[in-house]
Design brief:
Order of helices and strands: HHHEHEHHHHHHEEHHEHHEEEHEEEEEEE
Number of helices: 15
Number of strands: 15
Radius of gyration: 25 Å
Strand content: 15-25%
Structural class: alpha+beta
Shape: elongated
Number of domains: 3
Length: 476
């Protein structure tokens, strides 16, 4: 399928339709996680200093409805009281555009399978789990989409965020980013900045899904639970519980921001510090708990451990050094916790078999640990999407562009000048070498602002966009 050239024209394909959620619930958990990421990151200052918005994430940005009717067909279906539906002029804050992107990125469509990724195999949904999703599509339980369009199980989330097939992915983000910097008209730059934030929110959503254990353990079955009274009200009880317990405003603040370089590494990396890596090895999902384990009541501790090890569907989480055999015989059962005391699963001896399950109280403990980590990864991801280490300095009567951060590889630098009415034009371009600075001429007479765009590669060879802007003349 050829990638559409318009971000907005493609959103309808991805986002039209309502029904059971395929991830953290969009209107609550995804919205809350995205807000926490935005407010914990440098996005506010980056929008002010590099895009000249003045009010940062609170700047009002307009996309005229006539320019993007497909986008507004989706947004008008959302609840306007939630704060991410534009007014009749197509206007809302930069933060609201970002949140809107995270809300509309994942709805019941044939593209739902692209939000799964198993870091142990490097794949998305397996043929078996995809088959389950296809059967549900054929029953109409997922609304928009068709079984045939799902393909062999969906592209892994670790590549979907920047796939050519993803209209709300990195390629759409990059296209809008460049236009938000380079377009002549202030109104058009504003429109494209809103589009940049929409795509950034959608990519954040895919990353946030890597904090859901079922999404990183190839466990579609966890999304087929009945969580309501209607036959088609299917979904993940774990993710519904997150929505009920934390809503949107109660999503926890981020914990320590991970030290990760390169956007793809936030999903998974060789060091095992990607969000999918950590979640997969740290938590069970309902469909990947240890299988029912036959164990005689008089079995010793070593025999019990051997039997449970043999029933693990994955090597991690590994059993604790000691299981509480006495408590496991009681009615309430016992609790398997991690090193931080967080419940991973309950276990109980029943009829010479050990049964494992995750009850709501256990799931809440996990959510209290998982959600701050997901928020923290979102903070770092946004800071990587909108880098702040491209600098513009005075150099006599000219200017110097510095990109001496280790993240920068080679790329093209374009310089733009703004006239008093806000119209922008390019007046210089040159190639920038890694770790170097670049002398550029001063803008022409009548210029009131200078903006620079770096369009190239980072130190790992991945795409990198960065911009900086300053009133002219520069302050000493």
């Amino acid at each position: 399928m050829k990638r559409t050239s318009s971000l907005f024209a493609a959103i309808l394909v991805v986002a039209l339709g309502q029904g059971e959620a395929k991830a953290w619930e969009p209107a609550t958990t995804h919205a809350g996680l995205t807000e926490q990421a935005a407010l914990g990151s440098a996005l506010h200052s980056r929008l002010r200093e590099h895009f000249g918005t003045g009010r940062g994430v609170y700047a009002m940005l307009t996309i005229p409805e006539a320019d993007a009717p497909e986008l507004f067909a989706v947004l008008r279906r959302l609840n306007p009281t939630h704060g991410y539906v534009p007014d009749t002029r197509g206007r809302m804050s930069a933060l609201s555009w970002l949140v809107a992107g995270s809300v509309i990125a994942d709805v019941p469509s044939a593209l739902a399978g692209n939000h799964f990724f198993d870091p142990r195999t490097g794949k998305g949904l397996s043929a078996a789990t995809a088959g389950g999703l296809m059967r549900r599509l054929q029953r109409g339980a997922l609304g928009v989409g068709s079984a045939a369009s799902l393909g062999a199980g969906g592209e892994p989330a670790a590549s979907w965020w920047r796939s050519e097939e993803n209209p709300m992915g990195y390629l759409g983000f990059a296209d809008q980013f460049r236009k938000a910097v380079s377009t002549a008209s202030p109104a058009q730059r504003e429109r494209h900045l809103a589009g940049t934030l929409l795509a950034a929110g959608a990519m954040l959503h895919v990353l946030q899904d890597m904090g859901s254990p079922s999404h990183v353990r190839n466990d579609l079955r966890a999304h087929q639970e009945h969580i309501g009274t209607a036959e088609t009200d299917l979904g993940s009880r774990f993710e519904r519980l997150a929505a009920l317990a934390f809503g949107r405003l109660g999503v926890p603040a981020p914990n320590d921001k991970p030290a990760i370089t390169g956007l793809g590494a936030f999903f998974s990396n060789a060091e095992g510090t990607g969000l999918a890596d950590i979640t997969e090895r740290s938590y069970f999902s309902n469909g990947t708990l240890p299988a029912l384990t036959p164990v005689e009541r008089n079995a010793g501790a070593s025999e019990l451990m051997r039997r449970i090890q043999s029933k693990l569907r994955r090597p991690e989480p590994s059993p604790p050094p000691r299981l509480d055999v006495v408590a496991a015989r009681n009615k309430a059962g016992a609790t398997w916790t991690n090193a931080d005391g967080v419940c991973l699963t309950r276990y109980k001896w029943e009829r010479a078999r050990m049964r494992f399950w995750i009850d709501d109280r256990c799931a809440l403990e996990q959510l209290e640990a998982i959600l701050p980590t997901v928020s923290a990864y979102g903070v770092a991801f946004l800071d990587e999407l909108f880098p702040g280490d491209l600098r513009l300095e005075a150099s006599g009567q000219a200017l110097r562009v510095r990109a001496d951060s280790p993240r920068f590889g080679a790329g093209k630098v374009q310089a733009f000048s703004d006239s008093a009415d806000g119209s922008r034009s390019e007046y210089f371009s040159a190639e920038l070498s890694p770790g170097a600075s670049l002398e550029i001429p001063a803008p022409g007479k009548g210029s009131v602002r200078v903006t620079v765009l770096f369009d190239g590669r980072d130190a790992t060879g991945a795409d990198l966009l960065a911009t900086t802007s300053s009133p002219w003349p520069l302050s000493k």
